[in-house]
Amino acid sequence: MMWLQALILLMVAAGGLGVVVTRDPLNQAVAASFYGILLGLMFFLFHAPDVALSQITVGALALPLMILLALAKIRKREQETQEENRKPEADGQRE
Amino acid sequence: MSAGTRIAMFVLSCAAFTALYIAALCGLSPIGQVHGWAAQYGDAINRMSVPALHITDAVTAVNFEFRGFDTLGEEFIMAVSVLGAALLLRKHPDQGSGPPQDKAAGRKISRPGDAVRVLTVGLVGPVTLFGIYIVVHGQLTPGGGFQGGVILASAPLLIYLAGEFGSLQQVAPRWLVEVGEAVGAGGYAVIGAVSLAVGLPFLANYLPPGRVGDLFSGGIVALIDVTVGLEVAGGLLLLLLVFLEEALTRRP
Amino acid sequence: MTHLPYCLAAWLFAVGMYGIVTSRNMVHLIICLTVVQSSTYALLLAIGFRANAVAPIFADIKPGTPAVDPVVQALMLTDIVVEVTVTALLLGLAVLAHQQTGKLDPRELGVLRG
Fold first, then answer.
1. pTM for the full model?
2. Which residues of C touch B30 (CB under 8 A)?
3. Which ipTM was obtained for this model?
């Protein structure tokens, strides 16, 4: 059991580094979800089943969902401003 | 100052802090070998949890009985942040709202496939039942209000995945979710206030502990589990509704 | 192995802070904040662990067997669920900042205007 615990600790360290190094927020949401599952596994291997249950439901489900919804709103707003910027240029070209 | 100097300063201070942090932490005893006065609180609770309260899950006993006041504060932190997020994303006077435009910007609309719809609609019942099971069995097995509330909040989300935003709004209308969350948050405080009315300190246990392994054991812990589960489910569902409304229905 | 979880807590803290300081996107910054928070979970987990002990659930074992510390687990449990709502609040702030200024770079959002 000891080597399993050491292995999961190293995997969590690599997972944390992976989440930070991923710069694009959309890819980072998936990385954060996987990191949440790794954390849940770590809690389970250290004899903390309550915390593991909490972490798996929250970290793999609720957190990436909030991130994706925020990104959808931001991307929609960017698309709207692009359309607004394009329309006056078209009017200027026509005149 | 420029970004380069800022990053250089950060790297220096972070290296120094990490070195001090590791030196301090390695002064602790190796993990697993905590003895003496540092381990007494946890061992005392492990010893007392079943004989005194008939609760077999020591973590729930700590959360709702021994340190119940802290959990009340944390639950209110959660209610306040949900309130703050709902307040931030409210409709401005110069914003309109229209029917839900259920697609990401720049992508084609695609209906959910049949497999997705069958799976999600079929899973709504079992997930709700599982969430209720986890909430109610908090004092017996790993579980409790917080975990079960999150699982309960994901059941209407499956309905949204199977259909569209309109169906989610019909199943979980906003006023119902807000009422549920408020009842859960206030119910915890009311249960504590009833102890005051009976003559005991705030949040002291006034119901009989029951039999070990029974569903209704541990006194008021069973009631607090249900109110906390209601509050957490309502809070997360409200966050979801607010974000979805903001992303799908607002027009500039 | 004896001090590995402590080093993991320090490593996660340093990596998360590095991500926050060198971030160029508000949403990326908020996710790095969750990495910093998970470093506290690693530390609490290490403090509560007892060698050759079981989980603190006495449903089918005799009360009195040596078990892991339940107090730190209770602290971690509520913290995880509260963390996601605070992250949602921060994401709402980021969406609103993008609405007002059109930029997501924290370095360009420096000046507060009335």
1. 0.89
2. 2-3
3. 0.88
